[in-house]
Amino acid sequence: MEVENSNQIMNNELIPMEDTQPLDSEMQLDILEPQPNHIELPPNNAEQQPTKRRKKKSIVWEHFTIETVGAGCRRACCKQCKQSFAYSTGSKVAGTSHLKRHIAKGTCPVVLRNQEKNQLSPYSAPSKMSSFSDTPKRRYRTASVPLISFDADRCRHEIARMIIMHDYPLHMVEHPGFVAFVQNLQPRFDMVSFNTVQGDCVATYLREKQSIQKVIEGMPGRICLTLDLWSSSRTIGYMFVSGQFIDSDWKMHRKLLNVIMEPYPESDTAFSHSVAACLSDWSMDGKLFSVTINQPLSDASVDNLRALLSVKNPLVLDGQLLVGNCLARSLSSIVQDALASVEGIVKKVRDSVKKSSLCLDTSDPDYKDAPSVEDWKQIEILCTYLKPLFDTANLLTTAATPTTNTFFHEAWKIQLELARAAASEDPFVSSLTKFMQEKFDKYWKSCCFILAIAVVMDPRFKMKLVEFSFSKIYGEEAASYVKVVDDGIHELFLEYVALPLPLTPAYAEEANGASIKPEDPQGMGISGNGLGLTDFDVYIMETTSQLAKSELDQYLEESLLPRVHEFDVIGWWKLNRMKYPTLSKMARDILSIPVCTVPATSVFDTVRKEMDSYRCSLRPETVEALICAKDWLQSENVETALPVVKMEAPI
Predict the structure, then answer these.
(1) ∠ at Cα 394 (448, 416), nearest 5°?
(2) Residue-averaged pLDDT of the chain
(3) Which of 60, 85, 58, 56 is nearest to 73 (CA)?
(4) Is the predicted pLDDT of residue 545 greater than 70, yes or no?
(5) Phi, psi (degrees; rounded to nearest 5) at 322
(6) pLDDT tens digits for 289-304?
(7) Closest CA to 569 of 472, 459, 486
(8) Is Zinc-finger one of the keywords UniProt gives this record (predicted)?
(9) Pick from 546, 551, 543, 589: which is nearest to 570 by CA?
């Protein structure tokens, strides 16, 4: 009988819990710790104290004491609120799970009040008390979450990024509500001031700028700039200068480079000043290829820009690579004017849609202005001629930046269709499309040359599409326009042969892949980059010009490639760069010329951008830092790689 009682007591010690909650690791240690081999049974005396037990190791006993309340009955008493809980009755032990829940789950009123007074941060090292708040662990072992120490500098960095990414005002760090929130979130963080967070945002901008600078320094070709002038509630303007280029991996990049405050935005020098400031800031003298602007300029402004192109981009078509109008702005202006010309009819349709019926003239006696059959006919004609403009604008909203050749197809078809419609015998069609054709003709004349040389760089079309489209548009005069394009592209190619390009790492790598550089073991400085060999350079140009010219002619004379729907023209030139070493460099620059000055999200905007009054109150350097850093942070993880060309390189 004693042995049975002994086994029974041992079993009760080994399985003390009646609670069905999962056991945590400390409880398992308490329960599974080996018991002494010899157990003395208490005599049959009700007044006898229970057998002395082993020392308790669970941290729950830091918050509870054990009190004897009767014969063989002990209870656990909370040190905080003095409540008592069952612990043992005779040989039966209640365990500690219910005691832990009392502390961790907020049922202890004293602990709950203390937690409200002293909020713990996720960055703070948890105390022993915090272990109670975790969900009870399963019996199997799981990976532990590492503790993160509080880092004030990291917090400041994240506040700066938050303000930049979401256009929050810098003064928000001094707003009482935000200050109270941060203090409750992390009392150890010393809240920053306006001046401090302004410096942190500028520091973030400078760090990101160093990364962009390295990409530009390694740029193998040239850069194309776009200028987008924003107005403001004051008399000043802000010039957004973006750069578009193709890197050494033949991937297209578009980066916002500068936001320059122009005190006199209407002056003839505003645009040329911004271009010069950008080139100086990024050390890009000699790397400029083209400039695209967002509005018509005065003749003096255009002359200033062309002169700047000629100086900063010597020998490249004498400053002709100036795209006079942003495509998105031009299309938007035409559409607004077209809608305004039939404003009354458009209003009828919109009112009908608002009333959720198109037959309200019979069902609603108070509605007398429903569109007539003739109205619907005119709306249909309007949509017919607006649809090509919408489709073209849609190309500007794609995730991947489209290459320049894409827009020649759209532009020449719009030019042709509007010209035909303007000559229509239908008076409504003629009156509607005549002014549309006049406005688009201005865009066509300013951008036709650049779009044409871009499509020549598409091996699916080359000069053939230029000849075909010009014959449709210009009729008998087409030959003279085709000659302008043909002469221009040959002149540009010869200038690429003669123009000494900066020896960036990308060009050096390509040069090493094509030929072996001669050694100069004597250190006499007889390399091609040495001094005193100007005459030799001229000789090389004269003797190789005919050979280099034949590289372009060879490309133009080869058969056209099949017209597949999704064709990566930049990828094709990458695969064929060894066959066309000079022409591929020219193609890389031409195909990166932007036709639009605004980002994809602003293509369908109908009003000019205006800088808000809050940012106008900041220093110009701070405005530039906030806006440029946002552009860089947003794009650093979404750089779109061009698709791989499914085509073998020529042998």
Answers:
(1) 40
(2) 78
(3) 85
(4) no
(5) -120, 110
(6) 888 888 888 888 888 8
(7) 459
(8) yes
(9) 589
As a whole number of angstroms, the distance between CA 20 and CA 535 comes to 95
**For residue 518, pLDDT beyond 60:** no
| Better-predicted residue by pLDDT, 180 or 148 | 180
Provide the pLDDT for residue 232: 92
Count helices and strands (H / E) in the chain: 23, 10
Are 294 and 597 in contact by the 8 Å Cβ rule? The answer is: yes
Rounded Cα distance between 99 and 95, Å, is 8
pTM score, two decimals? Answer: 0.69
CA–CA distance, 360 with 371 (Å, rounded to integer): 10
Lowest mean pLDDT of 7-11, 84-88, 563-567, name the range.
7-11
Region of residue 120 (phi > 0: left; psi between -120 and 50: alpha; otherwise: beta): beta
Phi-psi bin for 152: left (phi > 0), alpha (psi -120 to 50), beta?
A: alpha
DSSP state of 243: E
Dist. CA 102–CA 17, nearest whole Å: 16
Confidence at 532, pLDDT banded by 50, 70, 90: low
**CA-to-CA distance for 503 and 221, rounded, in angstroms?**
10
Whole-number pLDDT of residue 314: 56
| Residues 6 or more apart in contact with residue 507 via CB below 8 angstroms | 220, 501
Q: What pLDDT shows up at residue 275?
A: 93
Strand, coil or helix: what is 298? coil
Output the pLDDT for position 251. Answer: 93
- Separation CA 191–CA 211 (nearest Å): 29
Pairs from 173-180 (Cβ < 8 Å, separation ≥ 24) = 173/197
Distance in angstroms (rounded) separating the CA atoms of residues 618 and 372: 54
- Residues 181-214, buried b or exposed e (16+ Cβ, 10 A)? ebeeebeebebbeeebbbbbbbebbeebbeebee
Grade residue 100 by pLDDT with cuts at 50, 70 and 90: confident
Q: Which token pair is 393?
A: 């604008």
The whole-angstrom separation of Cα 571 and Cα 249 is: 10
The single residue listed with the structure tokens 């300029």 is 297
Contact 427, 525 (CB under 8 A): no
Mean pLDDT for 84-106 is 77
Most distant CA pair in the chain: distance in Å?
A: 127
Residue 179 has pLDDT above 50, yes or no: yes
Question: What would the two tokens of residue 346 be?
Answer: 């458009």
Q: What is the C-alpha separation between 429 and 440, in angstroms, rounded? A: 16
Phi, psi of 521 (to 5 degrees): -65, -25
Q: pLDDT tens across 357-378, in order?
A: 555 555 566 666 778 889 889 9
Residues present in the chain in total: 651
